[in-house]
């Protein structure tokens, strides 16, 4: 019988966590990024390691450095993050995509500083690679968890992403809710699988969200639920 506290539920598992926001370069002094703090991914990396996993954290721009004692790799763009994930993907058991990946990047990155010219300027953007969608397509026996940060129609959008990206679980959060989302130390999340709601968590610390989410994932990976 497994202990109920979930202490070592991920013993022997290889886990990839992505966190933070990607940086998409415009020129040597400017870039596009987003409000991700990296906190949720950091909490997941710590919790997975505490639960016995071997963790590799791949992070973009974050508010603070990654937690001490975690094997962490810093990347910039969505493309860089994709390449880093792919290097560990085949060998992994669980992948959690908590990163806020830019959806678009500048069509071209200027090699020198863009000079001010007319009264308006247009930046052409092109879509980035959807890392999670690519992983979903090439999944063998990895357990895949996506995130869905939404401001409206949270459940419908989250379920759509779960199916479209072939995730095993998706963690939805309404980033407009008090006590949730970017920069906050707490979060309010709903976990869905293809069958519907798995768990609606009340407001709690990101550390606690991480432990509960990983416990759900570990039980499923171990064929217990
Ligand atoms: N994601 C990704 N690569 C991208 C965009 C998103 O891997 N280029 C991942 C995120 O890490 C997250 C999930 O996909 O786990 C959902 O991200 P989200 O931004 O909520 O969804 P999108 O599919 O980008 O849709 P939209 O931004 O329009 O809501
Ligand atoms: Ca997006």
From TrEMBL:
GO terms for molecular function: phosphopantothenate--cysteine ligase activity; phosphopantothenoylcysteine decarboxylase activity. This is Coenzyme A biosynthesis bifunctional protein CoaBC. Residues 10-216 form the DNA/pantothenate metabolism flavoprotein C-terminal domain. Catalyzes two sequential steps in the biosynthesis of coenzyme A. In the first step cysteine is conjugated to 4'-phosphopantothenate to form 4-phosphopantothenoylcysteine. In the second step the latter compound is decarboxylated to form 4'-phosphopantotheine. Catalyzes two steps in the biosynthesis of coenzyme A. In the first step cysteine is conjugated to 4'-phosphopantothenate to form 4-phosphopantothenoylcysteine, in the latter compound is decarboxylated to form 4'-phosphopantotheine. CTP binds at residues 103, 113, 147, 161, 165. Pathway: Cofactor biosynthesis; coenzyme A biosynthesis; CoA from (R)-pantothenate: step 3/5; Cofactor biosynthesis; coenzyme A biosynthesis; CoA from (R)-pantothenate: step 2/5. It catalyses: (R)-4'-phosphopantothenate + L-cysteine + CTP = N-[(R)-4-phosphopantothenoyl]-L-cysteine + CMP + diphosphate + H(+); N-[(R)-4-phosphopantothenoyl]-L-cysteine + H(+) = (R)-4'-phosphopantetheine + CO2. Binds 1 FMN per subunit. In the C-terminal section; belongs to the PPC synthetase family. Keywords: Decarboxylase, Flavoprotein, FMN, Ligase, Lyase, Magnesium, Metal-binding, Multifunctional enzyme. Its EC number is 4.1.1.36, 6.3.2.5.
């Amino acid at each position: 019988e497994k202990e109920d506290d979930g202490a070592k539920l991920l013993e022997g598992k290889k886990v990839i966590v992505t966190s933070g926001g990607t940086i998409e370069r415009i020129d040597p002094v400017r870039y596009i990024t987003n409000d991700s703090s990296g906190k949720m991914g950091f909490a997941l990396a710590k919790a997975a390691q505490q639960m016995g996993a071997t963790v590799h954290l791949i992070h973009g721009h974050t508010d603070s450095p990654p937690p001490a004692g975690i094997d962490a790799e810093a990347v910039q763009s969505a493309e860089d993050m994709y390449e880093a994930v792919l290097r560990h993907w085949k060998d992994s058991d669980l992948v959690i995509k908590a990163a806020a990946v830019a959806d678009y990047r500048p069509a071209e990155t200027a090699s020198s500083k863009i000079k001010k010219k007319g009264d308006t300027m247009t930046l052409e953007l092109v879509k980035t690679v959807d890392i999670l969608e690519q992983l979903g397509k090439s999944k063998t026996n990895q357990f895949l968890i996506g995130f869905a940060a939404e401001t409206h129609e949270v459940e419908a959008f989250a379920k759509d992403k779960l199916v479209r990206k072939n995730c095993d679980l998706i963690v939805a959060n309404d980033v407009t809710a008090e006590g949730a989302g970017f920069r906050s130390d707490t979060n309010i999340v709903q976990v869905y699988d293809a069958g519907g709601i798995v768990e609606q968590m009340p407001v709690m610390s990101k550390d606690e969200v991480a432990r509960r989410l990983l416990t759900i994932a570990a039980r499923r990976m171990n064929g217990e639920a």
